């Protein structure tokens, strides 16, 4: 398996890793800063270098062998046992971190069940389980106020036993934690949101920058899709 360094520090932009397996698609390493596709967040892109060779990593996803760094067809794959330098396309990833954190804020304002979501560096969205109409102006004002308030954002791990001993903590979570999969990673936006999440986030909401609410789409009787964009 691959140690996911981004779970402890999402600001790491590069690392070295030892190649543990290869395939036509790409390679796995013992540790990486590349986030794999999941939870609505795209897999990271960037480069891998070894022995004066440098290739592009076009995507990242989970597999039975660990986190696969997907390469372009025809590119040389680093051999098993070699040490590679992995470097993120940081501008793209940082945009994902800002968007991902902004979606937590959006979910804290529109307190409906979330049935889907998607993140990109350009725009992102959440699908809410509701028939209510969404007032773009008031949501936009509330969201940008949470950004401007610069709330701290922190991740921590908690065991199922600790959760069982703190029913009030579970009650405050906007999404219920998964059970039976070991320790749970919690994302806390101070005095705004607490929920289980495995994604990458910024350290404080001010780093998100101004957000513009885009289209609000009616995707069925009980589904309102809210799109967000960076204002800049
Ligand atoms: Zn998250």
The hetero compounds bound to this protein are: zinc ion
Q: If you average the pLDDT, what whole number results?
A: 94
The end-to-end distance, rounded to whole angstroms, is 39 Å
User: What overall geometry do the principal axes of the alpha carbons give?
Assistant: globular
User: CATH homologous superfamily name of the largest domain?
Assistant: Threonyl-trna Synthetase, Chain A, domain 2
Observed structural traits:
4 helices; alpha+beta; Elongation Factor Tu (Ef-tu), domain 3; 232 residues; binds zinc ion; globular; six-stranded antiparallel β-barrel; 15 strands; Threonyl-tRNA Synthetase, Chain A, domain 2; 2 domains
Would you mind describing this structure in some detail?
- With 232 residues, the chain is α+β, with helices and mostly antiparallel strands.
- The protein folds into 2 domains: 3-88, Beta Barrel (Elongation Factor Tu (Ef-tu), domain 3), CATH 2.40.30.130; 93-230, 2-Layer Sandwich (Threonyl-tRNA Synthetase, Chain A, domain 2), CATH 3.30.980.10.
- Helices cover 19% and strands 38% of the residues.
- The protein is built from 4 helices and 15 strands.
- The strands form 4 sheets. It has a 6-stranded antiparallel barrel. Strands 9-10-15-14 form a 4-stranded antiparallel sheet, with helices on one face. Strands 11-12-13 form a 3-stranded antiparallel sheet.
- A hairpin with a 3-residue loop joins strand 2 and strand 3 (26-29).
- Helix 1 crosses helix 2 (136-148).
- The longest helix has 20 residues, at 90-109.
- The relative contact order is 0.16.
- The mean pLDDT is 94.
- Bound molecules: zinc ion (ZN).
- Zinc ion binds at residues 100, 104, 187, 197, 199, 201.
């Amino acid at each position: 398996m691959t140690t996911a360094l981004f779970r402890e520090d999402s600001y790491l932009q590069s690392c070295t890793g030892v190649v543990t397996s290869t395939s036509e698609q790409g390679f796995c390493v013992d540790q990486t800063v590349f986030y794999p596709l999941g939870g609505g967040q795209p897999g990271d892109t960037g480069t891998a270098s070894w022995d004066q060779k440098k290739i592009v990593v076009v995507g990242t996803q989970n597999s039975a062998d660990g986190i696969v760094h997907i390469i372009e067809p025809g590119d040389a794959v680093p051999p098993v046992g070699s040490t590679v330098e992995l470097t993120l396309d940081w501008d793209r990833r940082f945009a994902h971190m800002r968007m991902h954190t902004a979606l937590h804020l959006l979910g804290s304002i529109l307190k409906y069940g979330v049935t889907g979501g998607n993140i990109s560096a350009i725009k992102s969205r959440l699908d809410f389980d509701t028939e209510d109409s969404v007032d773009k102006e008031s949501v936009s004002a509330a969201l940008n106020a949470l950004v401007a308030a610069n709330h701290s954002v922190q991740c921590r791990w908690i065991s199922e036993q600790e959760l069982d001993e703190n029913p009030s903590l579970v009650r405050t979570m906007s999404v219920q934690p998964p059970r039976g999969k070991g320790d749970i990673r919690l994302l806390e936006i101070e005095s705004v949101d607490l929920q289980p999440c495995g994604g990458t986030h910024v350290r404080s909401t001010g780093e998100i920058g101004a957000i513009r609410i885009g289209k609000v789409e009616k995707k069925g009787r009980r589904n309102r899709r809210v799109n967000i964009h960076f204002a800049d």
